[in-house]
Amino acid sequence: MTYVVTESCIKCKYTDCVEVCPVDCFVEGPNFLAIDPATCIDCTLCVAECPVNAIYPEADVPPDQVEFIALNAELAKKWRVIAAMKAPPPDADQWAKVGDKRQYLEV
Question: Percent of the chain scored above 70 by pLDDT?
């Protein structure tokens, strides 16, 4: 099983999760992070670090977020690895409270 970044991350892109990942499995896009399922070792460290609760074990992804399982795998092939924490977007805290953000994902 791998871990999956879901919709809550869109436009927030906090990188606390990246900082604790021992295998650099996170990839970064314009306004979202994804997990490379081929690299993830299921260590669970990232889950507790995500301030918007966007990371789930694949088996526990909420039904309305299941598309993010395939999306993480797809984006992992396109985007570059991010291995160090960096500042979130200036409006991340505002977006953290917004639901239904799928339409804002930039791929």
Answer: 100
Fold of 3-82: Alpha-Beta Plaits (3.30.70)
CA distances (Å), 7 to each of 13, 23, 72, in order?
Answer: 11, 23, 11
Residue 13 to residue 78: CA distance in whole angstroms: 17
Structure tokens at 86: 């960096």
Domain boundaries, the chain: 3-82
**Residues 36-88 pLDDT 10s:** 999 999 999 999 999 999 999 999 999 999 999 999 999 999 999 999 999 99
Q: What is the CA radius of gyration of the chain?
A: 12
> What is the three-class DSSP state of 30?
coil
